[in-house]
């Protein structure tokens, strides 16, 4: 039975009403409504409804026949909308808001601006001028290009006396060709452009050849499949139900980072609200990641915004500002304020050991607070998740890892991605998307054709997160040139193939790993992205790594329920593939199990894998070649991981404290729940492990060094309860970048 009844509509009317036809304002927010609950027969009786609030529900689309002829104001914030074209049924709509619908992008903004001729306000912004440009100038340009394309390539293909079959064939070829070849505007609007081009082309054919227009959107969708390369992933046949679906930020802890005698009640309330979801200690099943609270912003939900005072606006509405140092400071004491620009974020006092000596083998250089929401100096809650060093362009980055890194590192967390000079602590660039929460970044080097037809290598940064969209950033040009709608659920991690620079793996909370060819942008930043493979997992993939000895053949992934391997060879016909193997590991009680959360995974050597899973106090080192027989046949084999050694680690049961490796220096790094960094120098062991008869180390290997979290103070109060989410070194182990749960990026330099 539908949740919406006549009695409910009368009760939720503002003011309450006795007849449906008299209702002008209706509030249906926070009712957990799904699309099927919107009964067109019932809504058709709301003939005079002008204002409708459907915010904070579970709508994924609108029915096509709600029949609200007088609707002027519509609020759809905080839903799961995937498409906006059904809104054209409300032609008098003047104000529309749909913020915090993670699957909607800038392309959808342009679609509603074209479809709704009376629309004035979109997500709180006056779009009158831009909408007029979209409806007139944009349409005029595209119509001209479509007509020219027909005249040049197709008009002569159609004989004067033609049959219906000939017309049908030429129409299919023309629609496919025109959507592929007619380009206008930035690549970030390519989906909107293709949508409009198809619409214009069908109208052109209907006028020129007397063909009927196709008005069935579902039929259009089916016709589009397999006919064009798309930046969107295929529609899922059905949503998986009853799966544990959590995002990394939902870690239950006390979000008050400063110990204070007078804690603000407002902060306490916010802490309680954000700590409701507890993936580590709760077995509750969720169908989808719980959305963040609505974010207050004066900007469109689809715009990337620069820091205040920065410059660098680009044609696609996204900005990646130039800047000297965007380093944010905590609230400092009077003496510290005068040194704010030179000394960084917060005051620093290294922890001493019992002998009074500094218990570190690396010296702390910088502690930066550069991912603050709204640039707030009081933000000690934004979690930082991923960092990776930029490859050098003049050293053959894919051939020699020893000299393949600069001192520039990309970090992500919250709504921003930062590029930091590790030596100076300067935030070189900052890229921000107000409605995003970035979880992962990855570098690749592409050979691009510049304006004078010369080829030149450029570093491209891919960034992805909660919205399931991959942003592609040409860092040297300060320009986000495109996006790929890779998944309908958050992306946990991304990585590029070590052998094919345009191949990008994206691992998502939809329990799929997709392989994309992102293409190479031309001098106008036009590019084509295509999906090559979909790897099906039985749980959420958290970490992924191509196997170094066969990077084009196998991919390894640590998931919520185990460690899996897939065959990723592209010469096979099967585009969607199940896993080929699942690995067994010792459990806490010594028994063998495949069911465990693997939240840390990296190769130490070509054949040695470091992984961290459900067994507290332990990091496993194991052999790929001895665990996996590449000549074995059949999918979904269960294999025992051949353990080479165990590393001592914290006894915490907290998840998402990931590990990393420095293969050139034989180091493994992992942070803990106390703010410490555990470092393992394994150079004395790797030679024995490389032997085919190498035996397992009998005892757990202790850390070579534990870097203690220093005493950091802001407002004269100590920063505490620090979790180390990620630790990454450059290939030469000169710098160590530590990402925390308290919005602090710590940079250490090896002594």
From TrEMBL:
Q: Where are the WD repeats?
A: 484-518
Q: Where does the source fall among the domains of life? A: Eukaryota
Q: What does the record give under GO molecular function?
A: chromatin binding
Segments forming domain Leucine-rich repeat and WD repeat-containing protein 1 LRR: 7-200
Bias (Basic and acidic residues) occurs at 284-295
Q: Where is the composition biased (Polar residues)?
A: 322-352
Disulfide bond as a keyword of this entry, yes or no, is no
Basic residues biased stretches: 248-267
Key words, A-Z: Centromere, Chromatin regulator, Chromosome, Cytoplasm, Cytoskeleton, DNA replication, Kinetochore, Leucine-rich repeat, Nucleus, Repeat, Telomere, WD repeat
Span list, region Disordered: 220-360
Q: Where is the composition biased (Acidic residues)?
A: 220-231
Q: Which GO terms describe its biological process?
A: chromatin organization; DNA replication; establishment of protein localization to chromatin
Q: Which GO terms describe its cellular component?
A: centrosome; chromosome, telomeric region; kinetochore; nuclear origin of replication recognition complex
Q: Where in the cell is it found?
A: Chromosome, Centromere, Kinetochore; Chromosome, Telomere; Cytoplasm, Cytoskeleton, Microtubule organizing center, Centrosome; Nucleus
Leucine-rich repeat and WD repeat-containing protein 1 WD domain spans which residues? 356-750
Family membership, please give it: Belongs to the LRWD1 family.
- Read off the PANTHER family from this record: LEUCINE-RICH REPEAT AND WD REPEAT-CONTAINING PROTEIN 1 (PTHR24370:SF10), OPTICIN (PTHR24370)
Kindly provide the name given to this protein in its UniProt entry. Answer: Leucine-rich repeat and WD repeat-containing protein 1
């Amino acid at each position: 039975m539908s949740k919406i009844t006549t009695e409910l509509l009368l009760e939720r009317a503002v003011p309450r009403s006795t007849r449906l036809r008299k209702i002008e304002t209706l509030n249906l927010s926070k009712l957990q409504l799904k699309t099927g609950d919107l009964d067109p027969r019932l809504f058709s009786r709301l003939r005079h409804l002008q204002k409708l609030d459907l915010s904070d529900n579970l709508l994924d689309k609108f029915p096509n026949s709600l029949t609200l002829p007088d609707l002027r104001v519509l609020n759809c914030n905080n839903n799961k909308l995937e498409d906006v074209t059904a809104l054209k049924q409300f032609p008098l709509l003047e104000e529309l808001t749909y913020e915090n619908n993670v699957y909607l992008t800038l392309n959808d903004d342009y679609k509603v601006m074209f479809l709704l001729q009376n629309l004035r306000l979109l997500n709180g912004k006056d779009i009158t001028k831009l909408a007029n440009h979209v409806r007139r100038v944009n349409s005029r340009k595209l119509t001209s290009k479509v007509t020219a394309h027909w005249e040049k390539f197709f008009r002569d293909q159609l004989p004067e006396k033609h049959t219906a079959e000939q017309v049908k064939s030429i129409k299919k070829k023309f629609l496919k060709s025109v959507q592929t070849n007619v380009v206008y505007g930035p690549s970030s609007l390519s989906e909107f452009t293709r949508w409009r081009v198809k619409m214009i082309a069908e109208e052109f054919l209907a006028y020129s050849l007397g063909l009927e227009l196709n008005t069935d959107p579902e039929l259009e969708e089916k016709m589009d499949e397999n006919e064009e390369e798309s930046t969107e992933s295929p529609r899922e046949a059905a949503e998986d139900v009853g799966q544990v679906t959590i995002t990394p930020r939902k870690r239950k802890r006390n979000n008050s980072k400063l110990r204070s005698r007078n804690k603000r009640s407002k902060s306490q309330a916010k802490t309680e609200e954000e700590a409701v979801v507890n993936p580590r200690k709760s077995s509750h099943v969720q169908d989808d990641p719980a959305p963040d609270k609505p974010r207050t912003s004066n900007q469109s939900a689809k715009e990337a915004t620069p820091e205040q005072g920065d410059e660098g606006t680009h044609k696609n509405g996204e900005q990646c500002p130039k800047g000297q140092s965007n380093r944010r400071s905590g609230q400092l004491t009077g003496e510290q304020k005068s040194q704010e620009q030179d000394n960084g974020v917060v005051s620093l006092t290294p922890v001493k050991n019992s002998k009074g000596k500094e218990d570190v083998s690396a010296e702390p250089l910088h502690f930066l607070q550069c991912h603050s929401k709204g640039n707030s100096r009081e933000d000690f809650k934004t979690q930082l998740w991923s960092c990776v060093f930029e490859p050098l362009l003049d050293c053959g980055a894919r051939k020699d890892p020893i000299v393949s890194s600069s001192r520039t590192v990309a970090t992500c967390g919250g709504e921003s991605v930062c590029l930091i000079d590790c030596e100076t602590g300067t935030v070189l660039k900052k890229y921000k998307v107000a409605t995003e929460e970035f979880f992962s970044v990855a570098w690749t080097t592409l050979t691009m054709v510049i304006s004078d037809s010369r080829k030149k290598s450029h570093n491209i940064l891919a960034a992805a997160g909660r919205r399931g969209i991959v942003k592609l950033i040409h860092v040297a040009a300060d320009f986000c040139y495109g996006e790929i709608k890779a998944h309908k659920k958050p992306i946990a991690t991304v990585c590029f193939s070590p052998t094919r620079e345009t191949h990008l793996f994206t691992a998502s909370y939809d329990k799929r790993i997709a392989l994309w060819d992102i293409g190479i942008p031309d001098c106008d930043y036009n590019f084509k992205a295509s999906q090559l493979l979909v790897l099906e997992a039985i749980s959420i993939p958290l970490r992924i790594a191509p196997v170094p000895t066969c990077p084009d053949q196998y991919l390894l992934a640590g998931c919520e329920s185990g460690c899996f391997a897939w065959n990723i060879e592209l010469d096979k016909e099967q585009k969607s593939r199940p896993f080929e193997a699942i690995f067994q590991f010792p459990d806490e009680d010594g028994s063998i199990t495949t069911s465990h959360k693997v939240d840390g995974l990296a190769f130490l050597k070509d054949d040695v894998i470091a992984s961290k899973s459900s067994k507290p106090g332990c990091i496993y080192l194991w052999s790929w070649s001895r665990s996996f027989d590449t000549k074995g046949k059949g999918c979904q084999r269960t294999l025992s991981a051949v353990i080479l050694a165990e590393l001592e680690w914290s006894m915490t049961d907290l998840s998402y404290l990931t590990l990393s490796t420095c293969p050139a220096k034989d180091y493994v790094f992992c942070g803990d729940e106390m703010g410490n960094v555990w470092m393992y120098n394994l150079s004395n062991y790797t030679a024995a492990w490389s032997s085919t008869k190498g035996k397992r180390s009998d005892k757990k290997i202790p850390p070579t060094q534990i870097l203690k979290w220093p005493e950091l103070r802001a407002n004269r109060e100590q920063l505490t309860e620090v979790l180390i989410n990620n630790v990454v070194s450059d290939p030469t182990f000169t710098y160590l970048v530590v990402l925390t749960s308290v919005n602090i990026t710590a940079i250490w330099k090896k002594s």
